[in-house]
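Predict both folds.
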Amino acid sequence: MSDVSEVGTAPHRIRTAPAVRLRVPTDEDAFVWHRLFADPEVMEYVGGAPAEPSVYEELTARQRRHDAERGFCLWTLLDPEGAPVGFAGAQPWERPWGPTGEIEIGWRLTRPAWGRGYATAAARQTLERLRAAGVGAVVAMVDVRNARSSAVAERLGMARAESYVAPRTGQRAHCYRMGL
């Protein structure tokens, strides 16, 4: 399966995004996310090791609060068949380093969902929802080694701005920015 459908011939190709859906995470999604992200390769650029189920229980509960209070969160990402394949959305950057207080857009997908255009399609939906919620700008923090996520940020039209060193991992991260 290709990541996007193409109709026509170059230079007149029409690219269509896959029909992904975003929904507010449920209690059950904590266990789904734990299962989807148990792969060290999926977690390579976000700490390396899979998290405990309790981390996802807290994360999904926090996302439900964000959605109720702000109108956006990290939503559960559903593939065209309706199966959960990860999350995508936005939340405040609440760490004491980096773009503290700004709204970060992000995505994380299970490895079988990589390369299908899901992250870009979900991020575009997220940007539409953020505009509707009155958010004026977003950032994306991407580990400098993560070429796939950097490519998504660039496809969205985000510009690479400053870089930071993550205190916990010591890895450099690029901060991409975009006004809405």
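Second protein follows, with its predicted structure tokens after the sequence.
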Amino acid sequence: MVMNAEKKTTEEEAVHLRRSIGLLPGISFITGTVVGSGIFVAPKGVLMNTGSVGLSLLVWALCGVLSTFGALCYAELGTTFKKSGGHYTYLLETLGPLPAFLRLWAEFIFIRPAVASYVSLAFGRYVVEPFFTPCVAPPAVIKLVSILGVSFVVAVNSWSVSLASRTQVTLTVVKMSALVLIIVPGILALNRGQTENFQNAFDSESFTLTKLPLAFYSGLYAYGGWFYLNFVTEEVINPNRNIPLAIIFSMVTVTVCYVLVNVAYYTMMTPGELLMSDAVAVTFASRALQSVASVVPILVAVSCLGALNGGFFGAPRMLFVGAREGQWPALFSMIHIRRQTPLPAVLFLYPLVVVMVARGEIFQLINFASFSRWLFIAMATLGMLIHRYRFPEFPRPFKVPLGIAVTFTVVCFFIVGLSLYSDPWNTGGSCALTLTGVPVYYITVKHQHLPAWCRKAFNYCSQQLQILLEVAQQEVQTY
């Protein structure tokens, strides 16, 4: 008994990431990351490429189903491989070190900074614009508020894992309240017989089959983020139970809410009015919620902040695991000795995002990011199918039906192939940026051909940063 007590005390004092994420924080983590700016922006893109109310609602429902299929695949991966790191870990375990390194390289060279910059600028815009209406808000003020939002999120995630988790729960409650605030007036109006915008719902003169994949692309963007809980597997309490439950509950909830939000939009706005609006939620509020219309931009800003917090909570864990596997500098696999947070990995993203926000030239990189993100997701689920075939007896606490896994993988590769056809310039640039990681991998990871003086200088800088940041290697294996 004394030995066990001493061992428990030692483990509590040791430097390692704690299992502190239960079912409710897990649900909040997924829901809060998925529900960002997408549902307030993407309806215009979906309608533009479908041409009809009925088909656009069908696309929203199917995008939810496809995203749920992907989330279920990642539920199997998250319970099969107990390491954190999400995409990186699954590619490493199923397809090998080079694809995993390329995923890590792409994530931190352009995917994560671009996505975080886009969300933070959306946050800044919705916070600032109400103060300058009807004039145009100064871009410098929007950028300043965006950087303040990023700084707040970085500070929270650097200070405490539990604080970041509680912040995510709070922000998720607020943003789901925003969705309810949109859904309820729309459903009430529909109940009163306001159905004129749903007459001949599938009639369209502008629809062409080639536009349909682009509609799905817009919808899937709004559902993005369902994979973030897999980035923190080692910090989830009872992951075999909580990861699948959190994923299923979150995705069903988000899908139902998204479809109902779009029904509410079309109840209060004609398709033409929706296409004319640059801020669909704000236009809706001016029609249906005149007394509280000024609150809606703030609620949208909170939604963006929640998505930003989820990204900064999850993505650094990929860097943390990559460094632990020897594919990134060891400094980034270290944890703050008192805060028990992966401080170097969290801080690494901060200057990249700030620089991109300050420049404001991120929209082209968003296109780059989408191509690479879907390519690696497709590779991860393909790797899952290959791993199943090669190791049929490997323990899998949660196993997704084969049809679901195959369907999702084929659709992902179709999206990637279509983007290569429809936008070869941006997708080619994305491919080229990703492939720049190949020589980096062979020089620094595979063969370590760096000159001795370079390694010595790098090790010295790492030691000084370790002392300055008060970080150390993890002392307890958490997988």
